[in-house]
């Protein structure tokens, strides 16, 4: 395994529900990421956290709300989602220092279905 | 806008043959490139990476080539095995990124035929 875990692995929710996705990394990294993977589309970067501060938000709708309480944990809070939000949501972590990019380690993803 | 793309959505090769998966990128400011493999039901798994100050890097059975002149990246897999069947993605990160997200291509599905 990659050292990045995600729960739940599968989630089915209605459009009026509120749920949260959880990610935990055991690699000592200081940057964490949320990506969305839809069928037949490239992985889309949603949010980047470095040292627990959000450094990037790629015009993601406000119905997605990230939270990074510490360098090991990342959450994605979901509310009033749309069916088109159904996708695989991937968490990743990496080192992130000195202006150099490093490989990102991905979790297994949460398969989200919005009814 | 800037994008990373792949030339072929599906590549079928015979077991034991060499595979070459290609990727084109358009952001000339990118200085870090990476290949991932994704098997069904799993997250992307790191294969190999390369920085823009290099044009070739080798790993175990894999080689990445970077041609900055034409903004082209390729992944060569030697002596492909059934376990190599997966979707392969290239990705890039721009210079000075630090903790930057990656920009991914669409992926090539590599099929290994017995």
What can you tell me about this protein's structure?
The complex is a heterodimer of chains A (115) and B (114). Chain A contains no helices and eleven strands. The model of chain A has no long low-confidence stretch (mean pLDDT 90). With 115 residues, chain A is mainly beta. By secondary structure, chain B is mostly beta strands. Helices cover 0% and strands 55% of the residues of chain B. Chain B has strands at residues 4-6, 10-14, 19-25, 30-38, 45-51, 56-58, 62-67, 72-77, 86-94, 103-104, 108-113.
Q: Count up the helices of chain A.
A: 0
Which class do the helix and strand fractions of chain A yield? mainly beta
The oligomeric status of these chains comes to heterodimer
How much helix, percentage-wise, in residues of chain A? under 10%
Report how far apart the termini of chain A are: 31 Å
Produce the secondary structure layout.
The complex is a heterodimer of chains A (115) and B (114).
Chain A: E1 4-7, E2 10-13, E3 18-25, E4 31-37, E5 44-50, E6 53-57, E7 64-70, E8 73-79, E9 87-94, E10 105-106, E11 110-114
Parallel strand pairs in A: 2-11
Antiparallel strand pairs in A: 1-3, 3-8, 4-5, 4-9, 5-6, 7-8, 9-10, 9-11
Chain B: E1 4-6, E2 10-14, E3 19-25, E4 30-38, E5 45-51, E6 56-58, E7 62-67, E8 72-77, E9 86-94, E10 103-104, E11 108-113
Parallel strand pairs in B: 2-11
Antiparallel strand pairs in B: 1-3, 3-8, 4-5, 4-9, 6-7, 7-8, 9-10, 9-11
Outline:
The complex is a heterodimer of chains A (115) and B (114). Chain A has 115 residues and is an all-beta fold.
Fill in the keyword field for this structure.
heterodimer, A: 115 residues, mainly beta, seven-stranded mixed β-sheet, four-stranded antiparallel β-sheet, 11 strands, B: 114 residues, six-stranded mixed β-sheet, five-stranded antiparallel β-sheet, 0% helix
């Amino acid at each position: 395994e990659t050292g990045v875990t995600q729960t739940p692995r599968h989630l089915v929710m209605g459009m009026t529900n509120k749920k949260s996705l959880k990610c935990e990394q055991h690699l000592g990294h200081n940057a964490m990421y949320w990506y969305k993977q839809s069928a037949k589309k490239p992985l889309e970067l949603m949010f980047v956290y470095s040292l627990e501060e959000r450094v990037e938000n790629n015009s993601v709708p406000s119905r997605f709300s990230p939270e990074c309480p510490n360098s090991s944990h990342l959450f994605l809070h979901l509310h009033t989602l749309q069916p088109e939000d159904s996708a695989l949501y991937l968490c990743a972590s990496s080192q992130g220092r000195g202006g150099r990019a490093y490989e990102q380690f991905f979790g297994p993803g949460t398969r989200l279905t919005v009814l | 806008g800037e994008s990373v793309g792949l030339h072929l959505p599906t590549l079928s090769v015979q077991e034991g043959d060499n595979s070459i998966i290609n990727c084109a990128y358009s952001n000339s400011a990118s200085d870090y490139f990476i290949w991932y493999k994704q098997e069904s039901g799993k997250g992307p798994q790191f294969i190999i990476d390369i920085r823009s100050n290099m044009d070739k890097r080798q790993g175990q059975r894999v080689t990445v080539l970077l041609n900055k002149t034409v903004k082209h990246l390729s992944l060569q897999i030697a002596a492909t095995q059934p376990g190599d069947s997966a979707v392969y993605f290239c990705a890039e990160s721009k210079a000075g990124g630090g903790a930057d997200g990656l920009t991914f291509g669409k992926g090539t599905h590599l099929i290994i035929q017995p």
